[in-house]
UniProtKB/TrEMBL annotation:
Keyword vocabulary terms for this entry: DNA-binding, Transcription, Transcription regulation
Gene3D superfamilies according to UniProt: GntR ligand-binding domain-like, Winged helix-like DNA-binding domain superfamily/Winged helix DNA-binding domain
Domain HTH gntR-type: 13-80
PANTHER family linked to this entry: GLUCONATE OPERON TRANSCRIPTIONAL REPRESSOR, TRANSCRIPTIONAL REGULATOR, GNTR FAMILY
PROSITE patterns with a match to the protein in the record: HTH_GNTR (PS50949)
InterPro entries found in the cross-reference section: GntR_C, TF_FadR/GntR_C, Tscrpt_reg_HTH_GntR, WH-like_DNA-bd_sf, WH_DNA-bd_sf
Molecular functions per Gene Ontology: DNA binding; DNA-binding transcription factor activity
Name of the featured protein: GntR family transcriptional regulator
Length: 214
């Protein structure tokens, strides 16, 4: 079980929270692969904590659906199948579309500027063939709109779904550049709808953008 040593540890948080954040990151990014067996002693040594916070973190990761713990046997990273993604995307699309609609009354010029900057960076990463960096800017673009929606429930549910979808993106991302470029145009259409305070158009364009492009 290869464990990186050159990672940045969060500061001023409990051992359990630090272990949770790092293990979650490794699972989502694919450092810890689907189906990989997790050994709490090795993880504890790698993170510089005792086994107790590791076990507590693994219990929380099981609740999140990222690991599977078999009593008195072993713990493994949950499998992820490409064909399961539509089940995750369906509620995510609905939540993002609603967020775009709710964000309209709160949109200000500085938000439009920020969204435009993020979309420009997203486009730049696509042009430079940096798919993972592009994913980060895409996610940040959508996070701005989620925050503007000012609905903690939407953010909570979206965050939970996004963890699993992010795993899918890291493992299966092979989208042609032409499809990625469509995302840039869709982002711009969302920005235009928000700036025009057209809630219906913003919702429709968001739904189109978040849907899986195949």
């Amino acid at each position: 079980m290869p464990i990186p040593t050159n990672y940045s540890s969060p500061l001023r948080i409990s051992a359990k929270d630090r272990a949770l954040a790092q293990l979650q990151k490794w699972i989502i990014e694919g450092t810890l692969q689907p189906g990989e067996k997790l050994i709490d002693g090795e993880l504890a040594d790698a993170l510089g904590v005792s086994r107790t916070p590791i076990r507590e973190a693994l219990q929380l990761l099981e609740v999140q659906g990222l690991v599977q713990m078999l009593p008195s046997k072993e713990t493994r990273v949950t499998m992820i199948e490409e064909e399961d993604m539509p089940k995750l995307y369906a509620p995510l699309v609905a939540l993002h579309a609603l967020a775009a609609e709710l964000a309209v009354p709160h949109i200000q010029p500085e938000h439009i500027t920020r969204l435009s900057e993020l979309n420009a960076q997203f486009a730049k990463c696509i042009q430079e063939n940096k798919p993972y960096e592009a994913l980060e800017y895409d996610e940040e673009f959508h996070n701005v709109i989620l925050e503007l929606a000012d609905n903690a429930y939407i953010q909570s549910f979206t965050s939970s779904l996004q963890m699993h979808i992010r795993r899918y993106k890291y493992l299966f991302i092979k989208r042609p550049a032409s499809i990625a470029q469509v995302g840039v145009k869709e982002h711009q259409a969302i920005i235009d709808a928000l700036e025009a305070r057209d809630a219906e158009a913003a919702s429709l364009m968001m739904k189109k953008n978040v849907s899986i492009h195949t």
